[in-house]
Write a structure and sequence with these properties.
The chain has 335 residues and is α/β, with parallel strands linked by helices. The chain has 2 domains: 2-81 and 167-334, Nucleotidyltransferase, domain 5 (2-Layer Sandwich), CATH 3.30.420; 100-153, no CATH class. It has helices at 2-8, 13-22, 29-32, 69-82, 92-95, 100-104, 113-133, 137-150, 158-174, 192-195, 199-219, 238-254, 277-295, 299-305, 329-334, and strands at 36-45, 56-65, 179-186, 228-235, 269-271, 310-311, 314-315, 318-321. The strands form 2 sheets. Strands 5-4-1-2-3-8 form a 6-stranded mixed sheet. Strands 6-7 form a two-stranded antiparallel ribbon. A hairpin with a 2-residue loop joins strand 6 (310-311) and strand 7 (314-315). The structure holds zinc ion.
Protein backbone atom coordinates (compact mmCIF):
# COMPACT_ATOMS: atom_id res chain seq x y z
CA UNK A 1 0.00 0.00 0.00
CA UNK A 2 2.86 2.34 0.84
CA UNK A 3 4.33 1.76 -2.60
CA UNK A 4 1.10 2.73 -4.34
CA UNK A 5 0.56 5.71 -2.07
CA UNK A 6 4.06 6.99 -2.70
CA UNK A 7 3.61 6.73 -6.45
CA UNK A 8 0.07 7.95 -6.70
CA UNK A 9 0.75 10.97 -4.60
CA UNK A 10 4.04 11.81 -6.19
CA UNK A 11 3.01 15.10 -7.74
CA UNK A 12 6.58 15.48 -8.95
CA UNK A 13 6.17 12.42 -11.15
CA UNK A 14 5.28 14.38 -14.27
CA UNK A 15 8.46 16.39 -13.85
CA UNK A 16 10.42 13.17 -13.38
CA UNK A 17 8.86 11.81 -16.54
CA UNK A 18 9.62 14.97 -18.49
CA UNK A 19 13.17 14.91 -17.22
CA UNK A 20 13.47 11.25 -18.19
CA UNK A 21 12.04 11.84 -21.65
CA UNK A 22 14.19 14.91 -22.21
CA UNK A 23 17.27 12.86 -21.54
CA UNK A 24 16.16 9.81 -23.49
CA UNK A 25 19.38 9.72 -25.43
CA UNK A 26 21.53 10.04 -22.35
CA UNK A 27 22.48 7.17 -20.12
CA UNK A 28 22.25 9.01 -16.82
CA UNK A 29 22.17 6.84 -13.76
CA UNK A 30 18.90 8.46 -12.68
CA UNK A 31 17.20 7.54 -15.95
CA UNK A 32 18.22 3.90 -15.80
CA UNK A 33 16.92 3.35 -12.30
CA UNK A 34 13.56 5.09 -12.67
CA UNK A 35 10.90 2.51 -13.53
CA UNK A 36 7.59 3.66 -15.03
CA UNK A 37 4.41 2.68 -13.21
CA UNK A 38 1.01 2.03 -14.75
CA UNK A 39 -1.99 1.52 -12.50
CA UNK A 40 -4.87 -0.48 -13.96
CA UNK A 41 -8.21 0.20 -12.22
CA UNK A 42 -10.56 -2.74 -12.61
CA UNK A 43 -14.32 -3.17 -12.26
CA UNK A 44 -17.02 -5.48 -13.53
CA UNK A 45 -20.50 -5.18 -15.01
CA UNK A 46 -23.11 -7.90 -15.16
CA UNK A 47 -23.30 -11.10 -13.15
CA UNK A 48 -20.74 -13.91 -13.56
CA UNK A 49 -23.30 -16.58 -12.62
CA UNK A 50 -24.95 -18.61 -15.40
CA UNK A 51 -27.59 -17.59 -16.35
CA UNK A 52 -27.54 -14.75 -13.77
CA UNK A 53 -29.45 -11.56 -14.53
CA UNK A 54 -27.46 -10.36 -17.56
CA UNK A 55 -26.46 -12.12 -20.81
CA UNK A 56 -22.91 -10.72 -20.56
CA UNK A 57 -20.26 -10.44 -17.90
CA UNK A 58 -17.66 -7.74 -18.53
CA UNK A 59 -14.45 -7.23 -16.57
CA UNK A 60 -12.69 -4.06 -17.70
CA UNK A 61 -9.63 -2.15 -16.58
CA UNK A 62 -8.32 1.31 -17.39
CA UNK A 63 -4.58 1.76 -17.19
CA UNK A 64 -3.20 5.17 -16.26
CA UNK A 65 0.49 6.11 -16.13
CA UNK A 66 1.03 7.36 -12.56
CA UNK A 67 2.41 10.68 -13.82
CA UNK A 68 -1.05 11.40 -15.30
CA UNK A 69 -2.97 10.27 -12.24
CA UNK A 70 -3.41 13.80 -10.90
CA UNK A 71 -4.79 15.00 -14.26
CA UNK A 72 -7.45 12.30 -14.18
CA UNK A 73 -8.42 13.01 -10.58
CA UNK A 74 -8.71 16.74 -11.36
CA UNK A 75 -10.84 16.09 -14.45
CA UNK A 76 -13.20 13.82 -12.50
CA UNK A 77 -13.50 16.27 -9.60
CA UNK A 78 -14.18 19.22 -11.91
CA UNK A 79 -17.02 17.36 -13.64
CA UNK A 80 -18.48 16.26 -10.33
CA UNK A 81 -18.40 19.85 -9.11
CA UNK A 82 -20.16 21.04 -12.26
CA UNK A 83 -23.10 18.74 -11.47
CA UNK A 84 -22.97 19.19 -7.66
CA UNK A 85 -21.87 15.60 -7.21
CA UNK A 86 -18.72 16.24 -5.15
CA UNK A 87 -19.48 13.56 -2.59
CA UNK A 88 -21.20 11.09 -4.89
CA UNK A 89 -19.85 7.76 -6.05
CA UNK A 90 -20.31 7.39 -9.78
CA UNK A 91 -22.23 4.22 -10.47
CA UNK A 92 -23.42 4.40 -14.06
CA UNK A 93 -26.09 1.71 -13.70
CA UNK A 94 -27.87 3.64 -10.92
CA UNK A 95 -27.27 7.13 -12.31
CA UNK A 96 -28.86 6.35 -15.68
CA UNK A 97 -32.11 4.84 -14.38
CA UNK A 98 -35.46 6.59 -14.58
CA UNK A 99 -36.45 7.75 -11.11
CA UNK A 100 -40.22 7.30 -10.96
CA UNK A 101 -40.66 9.99 -8.30
CA UNK A 102 -39.18 12.67 -10.56
CA UNK A 103 -41.87 12.08 -13.18
CA UNK A 104 -44.54 12.47 -10.47
CA UNK A 105 -43.38 16.00 -9.63
CA UNK A 106 -44.85 18.79 -11.69
CA UNK A 107 -42.32 20.98 -13.51
CA UNK A 108 -39.47 19.08 -11.91
CA UNK A 109 -36.88 20.58 -14.24
CA UNK A 110 -37.83 24.15 -13.35
CA UNK A 111 -37.30 23.62 -9.61
CA UNK A 112 -34.17 24.55 -7.67
CA UNK A 113 -31.96 21.62 -6.60
CA UNK A 114 -33.06 21.95 -2.94
CA UNK A 115 -36.75 21.77 -3.93
CA UNK A 116 -36.13 18.80 -6.19
CA UNK A 117 -34.43 16.93 -3.34
CA UNK A 118 -37.19 17.82 -0.89
CA UNK A 119 -39.98 16.70 -3.24
CA UNK A 120 -38.31 13.42 -4.24
CA UNK A 121 -37.49 12.52 -0.63
CA UNK A 122 -41.06 13.28 0.41
CA UNK A 123 -42.44 10.78 -2.12
CA UNK A 124 -39.78 8.20 -1.26
CA UNK A 125 -40.42 8.44 2.48
CA UNK A 126 -44.14 8.03 2.04
CA UNK A 127 -43.56 4.98 -0.19
CA UNK A 128 -41.24 3.42 2.41
CA UNK A 129 -43.83 3.99 5.15
CA UNK A 130 -46.57 2.44 3.01
CA UNK A 131 -44.53 -0.71 2.37
CA UNK A 132 -43.45 -0.94 6.00
CA UNK A 133 -47.08 -0.79 7.16
CA UNK A 134 -48.10 -3.49 4.71
CA UNK A 135 -45.25 -5.70 5.98
CA UNK A 136 -43.81 -6.22 2.50
CA UNK A 137 -40.32 -7.07 3.73
CA UNK A 138 -38.40 -7.87 0.54
CA UNK A 139 -40.00 -5.09 -1.52
CA UNK A 140 -39.20 -2.67 1.31
CA UNK A 141 -35.55 -3.76 1.41
CA UNK A 142 -35.21 -3.59 -2.37
CA UNK A 143 -36.72 -0.13 -2.53
CA UNK A 144 -34.58 1.12 0.34
CA UNK A 145 -31.45 -0.13 -1.42
CA UNK A 146 -32.43 1.65 -4.65
CA UNK A 147 -33.14 4.87 -2.77
CA UNK A 148 -29.79 4.66 -0.94
CA UNK A 149 -27.82 4.11 -4.14
CA UNK A 150 -29.52 6.95 -6.02
CA UNK A 151 -29.93 9.54 -3.25
CA UNK A 152 -26.91 11.57 -4.38
CA UNK A 153 -28.37 12.06 -7.87
CA UNK A 154 -32.00 12.99 -7.24
CA UNK A 155 -31.31 16.72 -7.72
CA UNK A 156 -30.51 16.03 -11.38
CA UNK A 157 -33.07 15.24 -14.07
CA UNK A 158 -32.50 12.18 -16.25
CA UNK A 159 -31.26 14.42 -19.09
CA UNK A 160 -28.74 16.08 -16.77
CA UNK A 161 -27.56 12.72 -15.44
CA UNK A 162 -27.14 11.42 -18.99
CA UNK A 163 -25.20 14.55 -19.88
CA UNK A 164 -22.90 14.07 -16.88
CA UNK A 165 -22.08 10.50 -17.92
CA UNK A 166 -21.54 11.51 -21.58
CA UNK A 167 -19.13 14.25 -20.45
CA UNK A 168 -17.25 11.73 -18.32
CA UNK A 169 -16.98 9.37 -21.31
CA UNK A 170 -15.71 12.30 -23.43
CA UNK A 171 -13.08 12.94 -20.80
CA UNK A 172 -11.95 9.29 -20.88
CA UNK A 173 -11.76 9.46 -24.68
CA UNK A 174 -9.56 12.56 -24.40
CA UNK A 175 -7.06 10.80 -22.10
CA UNK A 176 -4.69 9.73 -24.88
CA UNK A 177 -2.36 8.18 -22.29
CA UNK A 178 -5.02 5.77 -20.98
CA UNK A 179 -5.55 2.21 -22.25
CA UNK A 180 -8.55 -0.02 -21.75
CA UNK A 181 -8.35 -3.79 -21.32
CA UNK A 182 -11.09 -6.27 -20.78
CA UNK A 183 -12.88 -9.52 -21.39
CA UNK A 184 -16.55 -9.52 -22.36
CA UNK A 185 -18.15 -12.94 -22.01
CA UNK A 186 -21.40 -13.83 -23.70
CA UNK A 187 -22.49 -16.49 -21.18
CA UNK A 188 -24.68 -18.27 -23.74
CA UNK A 189 -21.46 -19.37 -25.45
CA UNK A 190 -19.46 -20.14 -22.35
CA UNK A 191 -18.80 -23.76 -21.45
CA UNK A 192 -17.12 -24.06 -18.02
CA UNK A 193 -15.92 -27.62 -18.83
CA UNK A 194 -14.06 -26.51 -21.96
CA UNK A 195 -12.79 -23.33 -20.33
CA UNK A 196 -11.78 -25.22 -17.17
CA UNK A 197 -12.60 -22.04 -15.29
CA UNK A 198 -15.57 -20.02 -14.17
CA UNK A 199 -16.73 -16.93 -16.08
CA UNK A 200 -15.05 -14.50 -13.70
CA UNK A 201 -11.83 -16.54 -13.53
CA UNK A 202 -11.51 -16.56 -17.32
CA UNK A 203 -12.21 -12.83 -17.43
CA UNK A 204 -9.55 -12.06 -14.83
CA UNK A 205 -6.93 -14.25 -16.52
CA UNK A 206 -7.59 -12.57 -19.86
CA UNK A 207 -7.42 -9.08 -18.42
CA UNK A 208 -4.14 -9.80 -16.61
CA UNK A 209 -2.65 -11.30 -19.81
CA UNK A 210 -3.67 -8.33 -21.95
CA UNK A 211 -2.29 -5.82 -19.45
CA UNK A 212 0.97 -7.81 -19.30
CA UNK A 213 1.21 -7.80 -23.13
CA UNK A 214 0.80 -4.02 -23.14
CA UNK A 215 3.63 -3.61 -20.61
CA UNK A 216 5.84 -6.15 -22.44
CA UNK A 217 5.32 -4.34 -25.74
CA UNK A 218 6.51 -1.10 -24.14
CA UNK A 219 9.42 -2.84 -22.48
CA UNK A 220 10.58 -4.23 -25.82
CA UNK A 221 10.81 -0.87 -27.61
CA UNK A 222 13.81 1.40 -27.56
CA UNK A 223 11.56 4.41 -27.02
CA UNK A 224 10.96 3.18 -23.47
CA UNK A 225 14.35 2.27 -22.09
CA UNK A 226 13.05 2.34 -18.52
CA UNK A 227 11.22 -0.80 -17.54
CA UNK A 228 7.44 -0.37 -17.18
CA UNK A 229 5.58 -2.03 -14.34
CA UNK A 230 1.88 -2.42 -13.72
CA UNK A 231 -0.31 -2.70 -10.67
CA UNK A 232 -3.95 -3.79 -10.51
CA UNK A 233 -6.41 -1.92 -8.29
CA UNK A 234 -9.88 -3.34 -7.67
CA UNK A 235 -13.04 -2.31 -5.94
CA UNK A 236 -13.07 -4.00 -2.55
CA UNK A 237 -15.21 -7.12 -2.46
CA UNK A 238 -14.29 -9.83 -0.01
CA UNK A 239 -15.05 -12.83 -2.24
CA UNK A 240 -13.38 -11.39 -5.33
CA UNK A 241 -10.41 -10.13 -3.31
CA UNK A 242 -9.58 -13.58 -2.03
CA UNK A 243 -10.08 -15.31 -5.38
CA UNK A 244 -8.07 -12.81 -7.43
CA UNK A 245 -5.26 -12.69 -4.88
CA UNK A 246 -4.87 -16.48 -5.06
CA UNK A 247 -5.05 -16.42 -8.87
CA UNK A 248 -2.49 -13.64 -9.14
CA UNK A 249 -0.06 -15.50 -6.88
CA UNK A 250 -0.41 -18.51 -9.18
CA UNK A 251 0.17 -16.35 -12.29
CA UNK A 252 3.38 -14.97 -10.77
CA UNK A 253 4.68 -18.53 -10.35
CA UNK A 254 3.32 -20.30 -13.43
CA UNK A 255 2.15 -17.52 -15.77
CA UNK A 256 -1.33 -17.38 -17.28
CA UNK A 257 -2.45 -19.66 -20.12
CA UNK A 258 -1.15 -16.97 -22.48
CA UNK A 259 1.93 -15.35 -21.00
CA UNK A 260 4.44 -15.14 -18.18
CA UNK A 261 3.77 -12.32 -15.77
CA UNK A 262 6.95 -10.37 -15.23
CA UNK A 263 5.78 -6.75 -15.40
CA UNK A 264 2.77 -6.70 -13.09
CA UNK A 265 3.81 -6.38 -9.49
CA UNK A 266 2.16 -7.77 -6.38
CA UNK A 267 -1.35 -9.13 -6.01
CA UNK A 268 -4.21 -6.69 -6.74
CA UNK A 269 -4.84 -3.90 -4.26
CA UNK A 270 -8.41 -3.58 -3.08
CA UNK A 271 -9.75 -0.11 -2.38
CA UNK A 272 -12.98 1.58 -1.43
CA UNK A 273 -14.67 2.63 -4.69
CA UNK A 274 -16.48 5.42 -2.86
CA UNK A 275 -13.15 7.14 -2.30
CA UNK A 276 -11.33 6.20 -5.50
CA UNK A 277 -12.41 8.18 -8.55
CA UNK A 278 -10.68 5.99 -11.11
CA UNK A 279 -12.40 2.83 -9.88
CA UNK A 280 -15.65 4.67 -10.61
CA UNK A 281 -14.31 5.35 -14.12
CA UNK A 282 -13.61 1.61 -14.51
CA UNK A 283 -17.24 1.02 -13.48
CA UNK A 284 -18.38 3.35 -16.27
CA UNK A 285 -16.14 1.59 -18.81
CA UNK A 286 -17.40 -1.92 -17.99
CA UNK A 287 -21.01 -0.66 -17.92
CA UNK A 288 -20.73 1.09 -21.32
CA UNK A 289 -19.19 -2.02 -22.91
CA UNK A 290 -21.88 -4.35 -21.54
CA UNK A 291 -24.73 -2.03 -22.57
CA UNK A 292 -23.32 -1.90 -26.10
CA UNK A 293 -23.05 -5.69 -26.37
CA UNK A 294 -26.48 -6.33 -24.88
CA UNK A 295 -28.50 -3.37 -26.22
CA UNK A 296 -26.39 -1.89 -29.06
CA UNK A 297 -26.09 1.42 -27.15
CA UNK A 298 -23.18 3.09 -28.92
CA UNK A 299 -22.91 6.62 -27.56
CA UNK A 300 -20.83 5.85 -24.46
CA UNK A 301 -19.26 2.71 -25.86
CA UNK A 302 -17.56 4.34 -28.87
CA UNK A 303 -15.87 6.91 -26.62
CA UNK A 304 -14.59 4.21 -24.29
CA UNK A 305 -13.64 1.92 -27.18
CA UNK A 306 -11.40 4.68 -28.60
CA UNK A 307 -9.04 3.98 -25.68
CA UNK A 308 -8.91 0.18 -26.09
CA UNK A 309 -5.32 -1.01 -26.47
CA UNK A 310 -4.41 -1.40 -30.17
CA UNK A 311 -1.42 -2.75 -32.00
CA UNK A 312 -0.88 -1.98 -35.69
CA UNK A 313 -4.47 -0.74 -35.89
CA UNK A 314 -5.92 -3.95 -34.46
CA UNK A 315 -7.69 -3.98 -31.09
CA UNK A 316 -5.76 -6.27 -28.75
CA UNK A 317 -6.89 -4.97 -25.36
CA UNK A 318 -10.52 -6.08 -25.51
CA UNK A 319 -12.10 -9.38 -26.47
CA UNK A 320 -15.72 -10.38 -26.96
CA UNK A 321 -16.06 -14.09 -26.13
CA UNK A 322 -18.99 -15.21 -28.26
CA UNK A 323 -19.63 -17.14 -31.49
CA UNK A 324 -17.39 -16.33 -34.44
CA UNK A 325 -20.09 -14.74 -36.57
CA UNK A 326 -20.43 -11.72 -34.28
CA UNK A 327 -20.16 -8.41 -36.16
CA UNK A 328 -19.80 -6.08 -33.16
CA UNK A 329 -17.09 -3.38 -33.18
CA UNK A 330 -14.91 -5.40 -30.79
CA UNK A 331 -15.02 -8.62 -32.83
CA UNK A 332 -14.50 -6.80 -36.13
CA UNK A 333 -11.49 -4.88 -34.80
CA UNK A 334 -10.05 -7.95 -33.07
CA UNK A 335 -9.86 -10.12 -36.20
ZN1 LIG B 1 -18.66 -9.36 -30.80
Amino acid sequence: MTFLAVNLHASGMSRLRLKAEASASSSSRFFRICPLMYVCYVDESGTPEIPGTTSHYVLAGISIPVWHWKTCERDISALKRKYTLQNAEIHAGWILRKYREQSQIQNFESLQYSDRIYQVEKIRNSELLRLQKNAKGSAFKQLKKGYRLTKDFIHLSLTERQQFIVELAQKIESWGFARIFGECIDKLHFNPQIAAATVDEQAFEQLVSRFQHYLSAMNSTEQHPNKSYGLLVHDNNETVAKKHTVMMRRFHVKGTLWTDIDSIIETPLFVNSELTGLIQIADLCSYAIRRYLENKEEELFLRIFARADRRDGRVVGLRHFTDNTCQCHICKSHR
